[in-house]
Amino acid sequence: MTGHPPGAVALIDAQAIAHNLRRLRRVLRPAGTRRAPRIWAVAKADAYGHGLEHALAGLADADGLGVLTLDDALRCRRLGWKRPILAMGADFTLADLRDPALYPLHVVIDRPEQLAGLAGLPPPRMPHVWLRHCGALNHAGLQAGEYRAAFRSLHAELEAGRLAGLGHLQHYAGAEDPEQLPRERRAFHELISGMPGPLCTENSAAVLSDPASACLTDWVRCGIALYGISPLRGLTGRALGLRPAMALQAPLYATQAVRAGQGVGYHGGFRAERDMRIGLVRCGYADGYPRTVQGPCQAGVQGRMAAIVGRVSMDTLAVDLSAHPDAGPGDAVTLWGPGGPEVESVAGWAGTISAHLCVGLTARVPRILRPEAQEPSRPVAGATRKKARVASK
Amino acid sequence: MTGHPPGAVALIDAQAIAHNLRRLRRVLRPAGTRRAPRIWAVAKADAYGHGLEHALAGLADADGLGVLTLDDALRCRRLGWKRPILAMGADFTLADLRDPALYPLHVVIDRPEQLAGLAGLPPPRMPHVWLRHCGALNHAGLQAGEYRAAFRSLHAELEAGRLAGLGHLQHYAGAEDPEQLPRERRAFHELISGMPGPLCTENSAAVLSDPASACLTDWVRCGIALYGISPLRGLTGRALGLRPAMALQAPLYATQAVRAGQGVGYHGGFRAERDMRIGLVRCGYADGYPRTVQGPCQAGVQGRMAAIVGRVSMDTLAVDLSAHPDAGPGDAVTLWGPGGPEVESVAGWAGTISAHLCVGLTARVPRILRPEAQEPSRPVAGATRKKARVASK
């Protein structure tokens, strides 16, 4: 109820998302080539936790949006999205597909039962259909025999003018593994050999690790890279020319003098080796900051790193302010993203992946669109002293 | 868009919460005693992820509600809560405290700066004030000297009729540790020796592990136990006479035949040793199911356990249905709670605590109040075959 937000906020940089989309386009269209695949901008899970409406502000140039369900697709339409939408995990009936608001609509067929939902749709409400093979992932997806049968049946529908299109789609189980990716690609190409239709197989990891192969397909599906996060192990988004689109910030709400020998946090996980000044940050695992971080973890305070000390609790985490004598209540602390550690680092401390952190932010963390005029997203500088307050709503 | 909800839902059992409250009351009032402490029902973080409005349906007999901020307190008032509210981590100004809707209001003072916000409130809008010592936790909280000075100043206000009450509050750093708890208690009692006023120090772990000491205080603060979850390591809520208040369920949306030698899930984390039938469940880490589970993990299908196979992905996890030949699309899978594994087990697989899982459910998981008429919450039975479909909204 004071000037700064009472808790954690995720600041979303739509310009960074637009930058990342341009970056992927350049990767997919090397100088001198005439043709490049179109890009499905994957916006599942509320745009990987960034907030669909904010992500759309950066995705105006995408060729289509990839979502999970038809409800998600309708939400995109309500937000004004006019181009194609790919529903990647939709349950649907014939009645659902009759809603004209959904079109232009692409749907993925990953189980034989879904075919019944497609028969008898009158033009012009015809979806573009993508068959998905189960592949090495073995989540939803047609087995080889089911795939061939579905293709025969749907190809007849296509020829009769009752489908807008029919393509081939695959999710790789190990796209970031340079040995497994070609094997998975080859197996899928063998399956679809002789079946005409566009190809949609490559994701962020495949596009960035093997763009030459990705360029030979018709549509790519990019999610995590659009948000500035590396899909490849051991590399950050920045190293791949991407800009992080999210900064998780929370206010420092109190400071505490801790004497040598005293503990900080639940279960005495940290014991001070010297007298120190700590800052209490209004962010905890109830916001989605992972309680499971281990080892030396950091957050950004006044543009420099400060160590996180003690166990992360439900609503609070503590940082060592010994080297930040000017920091005090109201200062913004950056838990990840520009002004703090890379999200890839925090994911490493928590033993998980960056996407898990971004989509794991809870309902109480407002996603706020960062104003365009603001300074460009940069990594934490060495020793600047500028006060960075938490952005107001 | 079919009959069952498209994704994960958390079914909330308000009767279980009411049962747990009664259980804590019995623990706090052994036969023959005349006086028992009052109970703050802690409902921070949207009632530990259960949904405040659903939790309130089970908390009608609590003496007061414990929340974090004044905004949370106002939300409780809008939901019809008339008894006292304890704001445990509130930033406030004098203007904030003038809102009559907040009262009867208790506020925690954990930093000297907050005292300024209390001077000059005209009756009858007088909060009850609790001083909080930093203790061994060393998060927010007054140091000993600050505590004594604040007590002197506020005691004068109390005597002059300008406060509704003045008490002593502490959060233990190791309430579940039978050696540390008495030390922390003793240190606080030494600090407040000679200072009159009610005492509020005991939480779920302290109440359940040492009820005799808890009975000597005036108010206890119970959170996790109210939701049926054990605050003590190595014990489940059920072992403590509590009933779990949340069941996380999600629909099985497809099945897949996997041949011996094939992998399931990203990064080939699982490889089938024999031909098997798996079920794909519409729940993943974007719902808040932890991607970090390790070892043999399970979920409840048709009242019996099924192994989770392969890495949990954003929107899907897979279960082994080899021993569930009748299970198919539309069946409910229980990820934790009645009908599935205890939430304490899932927390163990994920290397965290149950509270982390419950508060970590994301916005896309609807919290649905379980109808009263339903069967009582029970652990998974041996080999019942009853079909348990996901409850409709």
From TrEMBL, chains A, B:
Single GO BP term: D-alanine biosynthetic process
The record's EC number reads 5.1.1.1
Q: What class of enzyme is it?
A: isomerase
Q: What is this protein called?
A: Alanine racemase
Q: Name one Pfam family in it.
A: Ala_racemase_C
> Which InterPro entries does the protein's record reference?
Ala_racemase (IPR000821), Ala_racemase/Decarboxylase_C (IPR009006), Ala_racemase_C (IPR011079), Ala_racemase_N (IPR001608), Ala_racemase_pyridoxalP-BS (IPR020622), PLP-binding_barrel (IPR029066)
**Comp. bias regions, Basic residues:** 384-393
Modification N6-(pyridoxal phosphate)lysine occurs at: K44
Name the coiled-coil region(s): none
Residue stretches making up the Alanine racemase C-terminal domain: 245-370
Q: Which cofactor does it need?
A: pyridoxal 5'-phosphate
Molecular function in Gene Ontology: alanine racemase activity; pyridoxal phosphate binding
Which UniProt keywords are listed? Isomerase, Pyridoxal phosphate
Record region (Disordered): 372-393
Name the source's superkingdom. Bacteria
Q: Which Gene3D superfamilies match?
A: Alanine racemase, Lyase, Ornithine Decarboxylase, Chain A, domain 1
This protein's encoding gene: alr
- Cellular component terms (Gene Ontology): cytosol
